[in-house]
Structures are given as structure tokens and as C-alpha cells.
Amino acid sequence: MDDNEKKYFGLIFEHLEKTYGFHFNDEEMGRKYLIFEDRLKANRISSFQDFHNLLTAKSRKAKEELQILVNKITNNNTSFFRYRPSFELLEKIVLPELFTSRFVQNNDVVKIWSVGCATGEEAYSIAMSCLELLPDSNPVKIEIIATDISTDNLNKAQQGYFSKSKVSSLSEPLRKKYFSELIGEDGILTYVANKALKKLISFRYLNLADSNVLFPNSLDIIFCRNVFTYLKKSLVMDILERFHHSLISGGYLFTSATDHPIPGSELFKLISNGNSTCFKKESIKEIDKLSTSISIENKIPDRSVLNKKRLDKKNYKIARVRDFISKLNSAHDHKNTIDPIQSLNPGTTFLGFKLNDKLFCVDVKEVREIVHAGYITSVPSSPAFVKGIMNYRGNVLTLVDISRFLNLSERSLYEYDHLHIMILNMQDCLMGIIISSYFTTFTAKERDLNITIEHTDNYIKGIFNINNESYKLLKIDDLVSSEVLDVT
Length: 488
Description:
Layout lengths: L2 H18 L5 H6 L1 H10 L5 H9 L3 H14 L10 H22 L3 E7 L5 H13 L7 E8 L2 H9 L1 E3 H4 L4 H7 E5 L5 E5 L1 H4 L2 E5 L13 E5 L9 H14 E8 L13 E5 L4 E5 L2 H10 L9 H8 L2 H19 L17 E7 L2 E6 L3 E6 L13 E7 L2 E6 L18 E6 L6 E13 L6 E4 L6 E7 L2 E6 L1 H4 L2 H4 L3
Parallel strand pairs: 1-2, 1-7, 2-6, 7-8, 12-20, 15-17
Antiparallel strand pairs: 3-5, 4-5, 8-10, 9-10, 11-12, 11-17, 13-16, 14-15, 16-17, 18-19, 19-20
């Protein structure tokens, strides 16, 4: 390579670092050279400068090529129950504690996040550990969220097909209990994860470097093993702070040996069984003890310092997002049946979001959940505002672009920088509204809300003027009227 090619070869990695947080040293970059060369040939491009221009363009082609590149350069080297001591710690200490406490508290859900799940072996291993330990008499439910940045990995993980060599590390009882044998037309034996495992796991795409993406919340356990080693250090710090907010008080974080030491460990307590370690999020009471029992000379921040750290600009934003998700979850089974006009009282909480760069808001009771867009399938001969369907918790979710109802220009899915779906709280059908990834919450009693009522638009209730920004309040009931519902 000449100097110009070396320059743009490096700039491509800089773009990958900026977009995905990847950090590669010179040796690792050299090993990726052949992958890059193959992509040049596939795109009929002769130089790294042209390839760099393709990747940095704001186009559908650029996004598709970036994803192909990510799929090829990410590491999917994994196995069932990889590093067994971590799973022994999970099975002997963490899960028994969680299952017992949930049963006593009459709280029936344990939520676990497998970060960087690759082709799914870790998530399926966690599911097997849970099912093996959970007594039949314990009604606790398991929810496992498994995320990765590689769409190729996620496709394989969702299918749950594994070769004989992959399942060879499993004991025969586990293999027989949770996998069925399938012989393909080529005569090759394949093992398929059964429904008992699959129903516990939700596989999703998630880019850890995207600060606009919402992390799962109210988690009991986060597995993030062999992930940080591929990311730049500044991003790791940000992710750990967001993990801390995603975990419940007393929640657990599992990392790998290459990820130690964990920054910000004043908020986590080290848990060990002699062979392996994990981290436990300190409860407020434990932080109180820490701040009062350590002398000033040790330079360990007291509680006021810790609180200040939590409430810095970035952490405060994350805390608000988590708070809004919590409110959404609590509102799920308590949909307000009162006319929205009469429900605008000082205690009402609203969700603000962007649609085509315009600000809108809805009462949180109108919304079931916000999810990242999964794999979207188009529906032939459907109205223009129906963008497709996707799987949502085993059900078909119809995706609607409401731009046309609000006199906004309609956009293709690929024009959204960050695609999210706002799932409406409805009884007769399952429908999601496509929105951009800008979220905020505000409660009437917390702010001076200047509400201007408009009668010019059938779908706008009024306008909130907050901090010099105007949010149009949507009439959800009108948006999901019969003309829209009929499309399903």
C-alpha cells in the first residue's frame, strides 16, 4: 500500500471505532486486511479511499456495507458454559439467592441480559442453568435478553441449530433434555434447541456504542464476558455506568478475567466462590456504610460525592431514561380509560419523542413498551403507511408510519438513524408506531407546563412548551381508529 492507501485504511478503522467503539491495534488491523480486500472486490472498488467514502456516506448502501463488515470482523468464538467457574458461581450463589428472594417477595420475574451473545451459546447456557435450578413449585419466570452487533450471529442464535462438535461440551443428560437431533438432507447431524429454552430468550440487535439506544432495565444479572477487550477504554467506562443504572439494587455483573479491574468499583462489591468472581451492585444502604466507615485519608468518595457523580449530566440523562421505562412497565396493566382531555392533571407523566425531526409526546399510559426494531418483513399490497411486520414476544406486530397523518413527509426505514418501535397499549390488535430514538419524560407536577390547545389537527390534542421546546401531544385513540386498525 502507498501512503494514501495506508491513510484511508486507518481512517476506515477510525470510522468503525466512532460508530461501534471497536479498538484494534496495528497487529489486529493487519489481520483484517484480507477481509477489507474481499469487500473491495465485492463492491468493485479499487482503493481504500473509495471504500472509506462508501462507508461514510449517508445512504442505505453504506449502512448495509457497514453491517456486512461488522459481521465479518466480529469474533463469534464461543461455546456452551464457556469458562465453567463463572457458571458455578451463577448456579451455586447467584441464582439460588434470586429465586428464593423472588418467591418470598412474590415477585415472579428474574431478568438477565447476555451482552455480546454471539451465536447464542451463552444465552442458552444461562437458560439451562435457570431451568435446572428452578423448582417446579417456584412460580418465578425467567426473561433472558441476548444482544449482539452481528446480524449473522443473531440469525444463527435465533434458529438454535448447533453442530455435533458444538454440543459435545454438554453432558449427555443436558443434551438429551434440551436439544433434539435433526439429520439434514446432506446426512449431517444437527442439534436443535427445544422450545423450553427458546421461549426464555429474546435475541436483539444492540450497538453498545450508540448512546441513543436504550439498555434493558430492571435487570437482576448482566453477563458481559469477553466484550470489553474489543472496545476502547473510554466507551467501557460509559457502558459500565449504564450497566450500573440498568441493574436493580443488588444486581450482579459477570465479566471475564481480561476485563478486570472494573472501573467505578466503589459502586460494585466483589463476589467470589474461590474459583471465579463477579460484581454485585451496591445498594444505597451498602454505599452509606462504605462512605461512613472509610476514613477521609483513604480518599474514598463519601456518599455526597457518589451522588454527585450519579447526577452528572450524562448519568442523569440515563437515569431519566430508566425512570421512563419503569413508568411504562408500571402503566402496562393500568391503561387509563378516561378521555385523554380529562386526564391532563398535575400527576400525568408524558413520554416525549422525535418523529421526522419533530417533537411529539403521549401519555405513558397509552404505551406498552419501547423496543429496538428487529427483523422487519414487508407486507405485499399493504397501505403505504404500513411499513411491515416484526416478531414481538412470539406475536406478529404491525409497524405503522404515522407521518402521513401528521402532515409530515414519509420516510423509508433506512432514512432513520436509529429505528425504534413504540408499542401501543391496545386490546384488539398489536400495533407499533415507528419513531426516532429521542426520548424524554416529564411529569406535570415537576414542571411548569404551558399547554396550548389546538383544534386544527385531528390527531393533535395540544402543545407543551418545555425548556423552549414544543412537544405536540398526540391523540392516540384517534390515530388507532378503525381506518388504521383495518389494515391488520
